[in-house]
Write a structure and sequence with these properties.
With 460 residues, the protein is α/β, with parallel strands linked by helices. The chain contains 18 helices and 15 strands. Helix 3 crosses helix 17.
């Protein structure tokens, strides 16, 4: 089973079939054909993957059990654009159990687990995703989720802002009917704030990325584990003594730094923010400009959410065998387009691993073509995704059921009470027992005994 999962994660399950899924006619066992996946016949294996993920996702499963009778998402019609893997499948099936109708596409062309997409299609979901989509396929899939017969979506669950972007640009009348958007990535949240600033955001949106549970657990703890997994699976690298530069010391960068230092790497950090730079320094990292170390480092990791962080000029200076990868959501951080020039040779070594060779024979190792390396080259810990998924589900429930006027056309943070609820759903896994305030203590602190326990400005 472990070997099969590894094969799936490195993409081999998609590359034995050269026919585009868009050219195939596929039906599930119920005769439904409103989906487009690589191979519907992989559904049994995908179902086993989902069942394994459910065992490691106690919070979202508890939410499914508690809210299934109330159906808080009855009449919700959700367009989803996220990574499609076993863990997000648990979220998709939870939202359906809570009453929602769904159409779903992938937010990344490399992160889809084909067998999981097949299992969801077999279960009757309208899934449009496969591993290794082209750019044109990517937008076609999202379009199929937004624009369908007898379908008027009223909610968007986005990861990166692409579904929101497409609907706003291509279907503005449909976009005005949306009750709320839930966004979970740095990149997507940035795009939402830009829309709001320009006066183009006509619906309320929930910034889940900056909720405490998402920021700490998905961005910090998850990346701390998955960066090592990604690099090991794709390069079989020995970490001890390697020099690594991490561009960006937000929660993702902090997680990567902790993991790599723990395995004996020498870690450098680049930062634009003096607060994050001071944190990096106090954690024992050297804060540098990229040009100061680019000739000597063995690994370059981007985690900024920005564009052109690693340029062609930087890559020209890298030493032979340098590994370059991205841990941010968007593929804009590494200037991959400027590597596709006649003077450089691309050599595919294995799935998601390319050697880019210079005329003098120097080569760098580029992972996942600059896309999100942990979702392209490995898998995420299901437990962490359970925390994020529960946060997303609660945000959808909140926006969908909110009385008129509670949320205006702006970007909101998840209410603190919901953050605490998500955390409490996961505590039983660790047999953790919370201490309760006495009436006297609660009065002294000016708190409600049931929470929230911290003010909104508190930084965890």
């Amino acid at each position: 089973m472990a070997e099969k999962r590894k094969a799936s994660c490195t993409g081999s399950s998609s590359e034995d079939d050269d026919i585009s899924p868009r050219e195939k006619v596929q039906k599930n066992s119920s005769g439904n054909f409103d989906f487009c996946v690589r191979n519907i016949n992989q559904h049994a294996f995908g179902r086993r993957e989902i069942e394994i993920a459910e065992q490691e996702m106690p919070g979202i499963m508890a939410l499914r059990r508690r809210a299934a009778d109330d159906k808080p998402l009855r009449n919700a019609k959700i367009v989803g654009c996220t990574h499609i893997n076993a863990q997000t499948a648990v979220l998709i099936e939870t939202l359906a159990a809570l009453g929602a109708n769904l159409r779903w596409a992938a937010c990344n062309i490399y992160s889809t687990q084909n067998e999981v997409a097949a299992a969801l299609a077999e279960a009757g979901f309208s899934i449009f995703a496969w591993r290794g989509e082209t750019e044109e396929d990517f937008w076609w899939c999202i379009d199929k989720c937004v624009n369908a017969e007898n379908w008027q979506p009223n909610m968007i669950l986005d990861d990166g802002g692409d579904a929101t972007h497409l609907m706003l640009k291509k279907y503005p009348a449909m976009f005005k009917m949306i009750k709320g958007i839930v966004e979970e990535s740095v990149t997507g949240v940035h795009r939402l704030y830009q829309l709001s600033k320009a006066g183009k955001l006509t619906v309320p949106a929930m910034n889940v990325n900056d909720s405490v549970t998402k920021t700490k657990y998905d961005n910090l703890y998850s990346c701390r584990e998955s960066i090592i997994d990604s690099l090991k699976r794709s390069t079989d690298l020995m970490f001890g003594g390697k020099q690594v530069v991490i561009c960006g010391f937000g929660e993702v960068g902090k997680g990567c730094s902790q993991a790599l230092k723990g395995l004996g790497c020498v870690v450098y950090v680049t930062e634009i923010d003096p607060i994050c730079a001071l944190q990096a320094s106090m954690d024992g990292n050297r804060v540098v400009k990229l040009n100061e170390v680019i000739r000597n480092v063995d690994i370059v990791i981007t985690a900024t959410g920005n564009k052109n962080v690693v340029t062609r000029e930087h890559m020209d200076k890298m030493k032979n065998g340098c590994i370059v990868c991205n841990m941010g959501h968007s593929n804009t951080e590494i200037d991959v387009n400027n590597l596709r020039t006649p003077d450089l040779t691309w050599e595919k070594v294995r799935s998601q691993v390319d050697h880019v060779i210079w005329p003098d024979g120097k080569r760098i190792i580029l992972l996942a073509e600059g896309r999100l390396v942990n979702l392209s080259c490995s898998s995420l810990p299901s437990f962490v995704v359970s925390i994020t998924s529960a946060t997303q589900a609660l945000a959808l429930i909140e926006l969908f059921n909110a009385p008129a006027g509670r949320y205006k056309s702006d970007v909101y943070l998840l209410p603190k009470k919901m953050d605490e609820y998500v955390a409490s759903l996961h505590l039983p896994t660790f047999d953790a027992h919370l201490t309760e305030l006495t009436d006297e203590q609660a009065k002294y602190m000016g708190l409600n005994k049931a929470g929230p326990f911290k003010p909104n400005y508190y930084r965890y």
